[in-house]
Amino acid sequence: MIWKHVGASLFGCAVAFAGHAQGATTTEKDVIRALHPSAGDFIIKDFTFRSGERLSELKIHYRTLGIPQNGPGGRVKNAVLILHGTGGSGEQFLVPRYAGELFGPGQPLDASKYFIILPDDIGHGNSSKPSDGLHARFPHYVYADMVRAEHALVVDRLKVNHLRLVSGTSMGCMHSFMWGEDYPDFVDALMPLACLPVEIGGRNRMWRQMLMDAIRQDPQWSHGNYSAEPKDGLRAAVDMLFIAGSAPITLQNDFPRGKMMQDYLAAQVPKMVGHLDANDLLYQVASSRDYDPSARLSDIQARVMWVNTQDDFINPPYLGIAEREVQKIPHARYVLIPASDATHGHGTHTWAAVWKSYLEELLADSKADAPEAQSDR
Predict the structure, then answer these.
(1) For a 10 Å CB count at each end of the chain, is N or C smaller?
(2) How many structural domains compose the chain?
(3) Average pLDDT over residues 100-114
(4) Residue 288: phi, psi to the nearest 5?
(5) Which burial class, exposed, middle or buried, applies to 54 when counting CB atoms under 10 A from its CB (0-12, 13-18, 19+)?
């Protein structure tokens, strides 16, 4: 399966495309069926984006597991918001390597005890996106718009007035830091997975820009008004996504000879290209353009367990950025997981067995700070 090697979205987290390309496996279907997820659409009227553009109706698709429970004073005490990465959707978490490790009976986020919220962000999954019909006329959204829509879903549609935990992968990891800053009294704990809380620059910005340029420079793209997908541009974009989401140890173990890798790419890259829309991908990648929470990290009051991996191409640990920035967050711990046969590059964020012990530690640590815990003392 292609995503074993690329990871779990576009930047190590595109499980969504795996499902489209090959269909969910029997094991994945069993996991989903056992959890009884509910799905819905939340329509936000007259949504104004940071750019000043507007949509009369913005649709946010979501899935939930479990039911909300109230603590003292009617405050919801068991709600968990889990945020996907670039190119993914909430559905990507309903797979054995994530839900099968976290959501089952007795597991850290047991769905019989927690109310789990899995949204599709703006431009992703079944939420409003360029390919729905507006194409290049779709508003140019940024992370701030996405986080505001997530908050509206939680508060206005689901009537949740407090979150026990916000966790996210890749782009969702970056959103987690923004939640901690924008809504410091709303969240008990944050678990960002696979990101850095600084402006995207250096090599990370370079490959993203190269990806966007590859699409825009394909004559078939036609300024976003194409009648057929710009395949050459998308092929170049997919090549970069494979590198960015790659897991070096796994790739070397599985493809030790050049011909093996050539055959793998020849079979898998066209499948991924065939399931992409160029405008959707451009908007998704460009949405990080003004991300930079570094100046407000000290505003975060939640307990933070921030986890990256040593073999992450997108967030290379030798830059020392995480060790520097974590010092700004009042109640934070940074964990760097060594590369091994168990890690999957940037996509390790969706292989919960690798890091779920840290989630258990965070939930135990932050519980002591929760209002209901204090009232029981």
Answers:
(1) C
(2) 1
(3) 96
(4) -90, 5
(5) exposed
